[in-house]
Structure formats: structure tokens, C-alpha cells
Amino acid sequence: MTAERAWWKEAVVYQIYPRSFNDSDGDGIGDLQGVIERLDHVADLGADVIWLNPVYESPQMDNGYDISDYRAIHEEFGTMADWEALLDEVHDRDMRLVMDLVVNHTSNQHAWFRKSRERDPAYEDYYIWREGDTDEDGDPVPPNNWESFFGGSAWAFDQTRGEYYLHLYDRSQPDLDWTNEAVRRDVFDVVEWWLEKGIDGFRMDVINLLSKAEGLPDGDPDSEWVGSEHFINGPELYEYLDDLDEDVLSNYDVMTVGEMPQLTVEAAREYAGADGPLDMAFHFQHTKLDYADGDRWSVGDWDLRELKTITERWQSGLAEDGWNALYWENHDQPRSVSRYGDPDEYRRESAKLLATYLFTLQGTPYVYQGQELGMTNATWDSMGDLRDVDAINHAEELLEREGVDGYDDVKDVVGYRTRDNARTPMQWSDDENAGFTDGEPWIQVNRNYTEVNAADQRADDDSVYNYYRRLIDLREERDVLVYGDYTDLLPDHETVFAYTRSLDTDEGPERALVVLHFSDEAKSVDLSVEYGEASLLLSNYDRTDAEPVSLSLAPYEARVYELR
User: Fold this and answer.
1) d(CA 430, CA 435)
2) Cβ-count burial 50-84 (b if 16+ within 10 Å, e if not)
3) pLDDT range class, residue 168, cuts 50, 70, 90
4) Poorest-confidence range of 421-430, 510-519, 535-544?
């Protein structure tokens, strides 16, 4: 069955984290004018859509995901006039602009929260307030045992109101109470306000956390995220999203993608199927491959066969009802080459391999800034180098464990896992500070910028950047790579991932074969695939052979064939 066509299915999305993208005024912080200066880099890559991380007014406790005014631009990024100029420049290049929508929570500096803590009658119930309890010793305890994703209790006591408020993330990010119709109406008005300004859609932050179980019961204390069974995919979530779609989104030709922690294929079909309120949803199953025993703050070896299982689950599960959002990296994930490739000996080859996977599956590919260069994780020598509130909180928790004497004991895992790895400045050139700023960068620059930067790669035909360009062109030329069915050929092979894509068209059947070798050692493999003729469309090595049945694969080699 061929999926119904849509522009956002055929698009390539490029994610920009403005704070770290390009600084135009020398204050060390990326800004909107800086984004405008570098737009041609994104357009030349072949991207169709830009997803812009939050630039709204914010105290920046969580780098913009704590919004204090949804209709204003944070001064460090520029002005509303700068944003409007950016929108025009994006549209002039035949690209589209998608904004972040963060409406599970606001900043505690938002006017709504300030009024709510003062018990203003119009805003008293805009957030989730509860009285605490006392333990057997008479000491105060939070209303339930839910935990913040950033560590510790999900409840904070507010002295002004004399009650606890819920914050599933940082204590500076109180959760809105979506059971309140006035909250929903205000949020819908914000959405419509931005759509009327001409944007082309939204990436919706942790959107499946909006609905909490009635009574806010205790969660399983042994679960990965305590309480999550009561606030992920809650009882009213579909109704909230459906109302948003019916009242606002459906009136515009836009793209919507929801970030949905602990998402299953079944839930994805419900919320982002053909009749669902969203177009796509991000799941996180493949981002946990390198967790040791399911613990985010530990690192373990990962198994390619598990990636194949996850890929099969989502490619087959959404083949007839739904659409995949494909990604390796974003502002919350460490660099993929450092996790699933080889950042030292085979950085270039493994970066291209991971890109080949991304662009040859059914779904919309998302590229995070610097990924197209094969940027890697940085080195975090001290706690003082970190800016990520999540990493800092968990580092402090790790330091309290028995047998841990200091940061050096946890540096490896914190440095591997911190979101700061994705937030080091974009590496534009081998100039000072990687060409990102003339000032002092807000966060350290990765030390390898003299070897890994855009200026060098744009001039090098064999670079990761130019390989991305060829992949994007190939995907645009061949519908089979967008809409074709997926079949895994070697589900049990430990290092080789091989699959076909197949599509029936009016001109006849189209077939493609993708072979990916996830190893730093050469490997020979025999494929059982029927075909008449085969031509090699793309490889990350200098190959001219077109015989795909018996292959001798180099370390981290990727090949894409056309089968006839």
C-alpha cells in the first residue's frame, strides 16, 4: 500500500539550535541575525524545512524551554523584527519554518504563574497545585512520589501560595493544568497567533505529557521514570490534541510533529495516524540502545540486532497508517558518531553510514545542526564546563553515590551523556571559536573544530557535508526511498544491516537495496535478494562494482543500489 503523498513526507528538516548556531553581534550567543547569515549553508545542503528551537522570551533556566512570554522574542536572540526577517529569508529560499511549541509547562516567571501563585481568581487553577503531606515524623513531604525527568521530586513548594506545584522537568518549569478550559483556550490562541504570522508548523515539546491521571496517584517506585504511567498518554490527551487540530491546526497547511516520551507504535498510530491530530511523532527507542540496564546515566555496549528490531517495528508498524519521524540527533541527544560510529579512526565513514540509514527509510529525515559535518561529542573536564541543567543535576546525584570521590569518577559517563554535546557551537571554520563568534562563547567550542568544520567540508567533494547533499538529492529523485515498503534481509547479522525498499508505480516497480556495515573490521557477506540488474547509486567508499550478492565490505561501509 502506497502512503498518501504530502509535502512534509517528502521534505528534509534541518534543526537549528539558535544559541549555538551563529553569533552576529559578538556577545558569544547565537542569534536570529546569525541564523540569517548562514541560511545558504542549509539551503545548499538541500533542506526543505527549518525547525527552530525556542527563541521566545525566557529566563533561560533550560535554554529557552522555560517560556515566560509566548509572543515575544528573547533579547539575546534579537527582536520580533529579526524573527520576521528570518521568516522572509527562509521563504525566499523556498524553505519552510517550523517553531517549537512548549505548552506542557511554562517558566515560573510567566505572568500566568505569577498570578496563579498569588491566587488571582482568573489564573488560580492554571497550574497543578496541591497541599503536601507529612511523614511519620511529622516532616512535610510532596503530594506524591512522582519524579522530575531532571532528577529529584517533581514537586516544589511555593512559599507565596503555601502549596506544592508540579514540575515534570526543572523546578523553574511548572506544568500547566490542561483540565482548565481557560488554559487550553489561551494555548490555542498562542498557536493561532504564530500561524497567522506565517509559520509552517510546530514541533511539539513533550506533548504526550499534557494529561495527568485523576487524583495524581503514586507511581511505581521501580519504574524508569517514577509516575510516568500516570502522566504519559493520559486519559484526556487525545481529546486535547484533537481539539487543537480541529479548532486551529486544520485551518492551515502546516506540518506537526510531537515529541512523545515512551511512545509505542500503537500510540503513534492513534495520535499521528492518517486520522490522528498530528502528522508525525518522535519516539526514543533507538536513543536508548547504549543505556546499560536501562539506566540513562550509565553507558553500555549496543547491539545492531536491537536497532534492526526497532527499525522493523516502526517501518512495518506505520507502513499503512502513520508516518515515521527519522532522526539520530537533536538538541537533547549526544552526537551520533560518538555513540554509534567511530569518532576517532572512522569518523568520516561512520558519519556517512549513519546518514545513509537516515535517508533510506520510510519517513521524514531530521538533521541536527553539525550532524551534516559529522560533529562529535566534546570533552568536559570539570563540572564548571557544563551548562546542561539535566547533566548538572544528575552529576550531583552521581557524586552522592557510595564510592564516588569526585567529578573525575563520573566524568566519563556525564561527558558521554550530557546534552551539552549537541549544544557546542556550530563549527563553521578553523578560525578562532570555530567562526561561531568574535566574543567569548557561552559554552565551550569542541576542540576538534580545526579538523571538522563547514568551510573545509564544503570545498571537499568527499566530505560528510557533500555526502549528505548527494543523499538528499538521491532521496528527492527516487520515490522508492520515500514511500517504498521496507524488508530486512539480515535480521540476525551482528554487523551488517541490509534492507530493500520496494514501490509499485505507474511506470512499473521500483526497488532499492541498502547495505550498511556497522564495524571497524572488514567483513564479507552474502545477500539473498532477487534482482535482474543492479546499479550502485551511492557509497561512502570509492566503489565501481555493482554486484550486490556477495559483498566485501570495508569498515563502516554504506552502499545504496538500484535493483531492476
Assistant:
1) 7
2) bbbbbbbbbebbbbbbbbbebeebbebbbeeebbe
3) very high
4) 535-544
DSSP secondary structure code for residue 10 in this structure: S
Q: What percent of the chain is predicted at pLDDT more than 70?
A: 99
Average pLDDT score over residue span 320-340: 97
464-467 contacts: CB < 8 A, separation 24 or more?
A: 464/348, 464/351, 464/352, 464/355, 464/372, 464/373, 464/374, 465/45, 465/372, 465/373, 467/352, 467/355, 467/540
Helix (H, G, I), strand (E, B) or coil at 400: coil
Name which of 140-144, 312-316, 397-401, 497-501 the model is least confident about.
Answer: 397-401
Kindly give, in sequence order, each residue whose CB lies less than 8 Å from that of residue 459, ignoring residues fewer than 6 positions away.
none
User: Are 446 and 378 a contacting pair, CB within 8 Å?
Assistant: yes
Distance CA 527, CA 548 (A): 7
CA 402 to chain centroid, in Å, comes to: 34
Percent of the chain at pLDDT exceeding 90: 88
Between the alpha carbon of residue 425 and those of residues 255, 326, 421, 446, the distances in Å are 28, 23, 10, 8
The pLDDT tens digits of the residues spanning 87-125 come to: 999 999 999 999 999 999 999 999 999 999 999 999 999
Rounded CA gap, 124 and 119, in Å? 5
Taking phi over 0 as left and psi of -120 to 50 as alpha, with beta for the rest, 451 belongs to alpha
Helices (H), ranges, 346-463: 347-359, 389-399, 407-417, 454-458
pLDDT digits (tens, 9 = 90+) for 45-82: 999 999 999 999 999 999 899 999 999 999 999 999 99
SS3 category, 387:
coil
Give the active site residue among 82, 89, 205, 342.
Answer: 205
Is 259 among the residues known to form the active site? yes
In contact, 180 and 211? CB cutoff 8 Å:
no
pLDDT of residue 390: 87
Instruction: Tell me the residue length of the chain.
Output: 564
User: In terms of Cα–Cα distance, which of 523, 533, 532, 527 is closest to 514?
Assistant: 527
CA distances from 428 to 40, 211, 242, 458, 459 (A): 13, 42, 42, 10, 12
**pLDDT-derived band of residue 1, with 50, 70 and 90 as boundaries?**
very low
Other CB atoms within 10 A of residue 405 CB: 8
Catalytic residue among 31, 48, 163, 259: 259
Coil, strand or helix at 2: coil
Separation between Cα atoms, residue 482 and residue 501, nearest integer Å: 9
With beta carbons less than 8 A apart as the criterion, state whether 402 and 363 touch. no
Q: In this structure, are residues 539 and 554 in contact, taking their beta carbons and an 8 Å threshold?
A: no
Cα separation, 150 vs 448, whole angstroms: 29
